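A sample copied in:

***
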Amino acid sequence: MSLYIGLMSGTSMDGVDVSLVKIDDRNIEVIRSSTIAYPHELRTQLAHAIAPATRLSLHEFGSLNISIGRVFAQAAHEILDQTNTHHSDVDAIGSHGQTLRHSPDSDPPYSIQLGDPATIATRTLITTVADFRALDIAAGGQGAPLVPAFHDAWFREDSKNTVVVNIGGIANITVLSSQTSAAITGYDTGPGNCLLDEWIADVCQRPFDKDGNWAASGNVHAGLLARLIADPYIQRTEPKSTGREYFNLEFLKQIIQETGTCDLPKEDVQATLLEFTVASIARAIEESCAHPDDVFVCGGGVNNAAMMSRLREFLPASRLSSTAMRDIDPDAIEAVAFAWLARQRLNLESVPVTTGPGATARILGAVYVPKK
């Protein structure tokens, strides 16, 4: 078995998830996973950079790209130190990077990830695979989500309809039919934790709602919820993908103003946002796979007790559990996926993608080889 490192920072932007993984043709073994928090100043810069109205100078963009690349390289070094692994024993790093802007439906389409892969390769002396989205977007795909192919390799079972739900800043699902020859379905359903986190940060100066307790203390407002569910992105059919450039505090405040709910108790807004998140996920699951046998949840949302409780109520016919039940830390699954994607790229093995019309497969990622 060969060793790979996966690096991932998602739409929650709290830090870099890193995993050291053993992979061969039939097996995947997660050696260790951890998370390296972004320095406070860097996270503040990122929060500013992703705001819809922000216009970065070329210097600001370039500096931020290198700074994030350095944190990604640090995360790789730390996982090597934690496992007493030498860099020469690792075949490659797969780095997703930090999404700055995702715009697959614009003309021209694009998706920008920060975290300079040349910096990662040079600082770790490990071949680094990155820029996974570009070729798919150039070929007419959405460029996201990219992990459904890994979900297929790890979670698909004969005779069971399975759904994997990732609830990060944005939520996405992968639908795996009990028929192993069937195509994979995977797309972003809408907001995961992003609106919940931005609202509580804005009105309570807290980074997140622990266990969903504040949301649970409020009441769902039917009118606000109906307007959120009616959003054009939620109503779109797949393939589709989105990000925080769409679902953000500005988006929420505009809808609050439209619906005349400015005087709504703050906790009621939080309760409504949690209901919106869960309802949009459940709606997508029901449309793509009416009654899945198993629903595996990963991402930060798995730690939100109120969210998991409501998701179970929305999906009473399914067994709902964390991906830990299948031996992958729910906070690390995307990092593991990018380690696997790096192996696919080095072996020139195509990856089934779900991001465009019709089933297809592509070789994804650009390779950066350091001088060793």
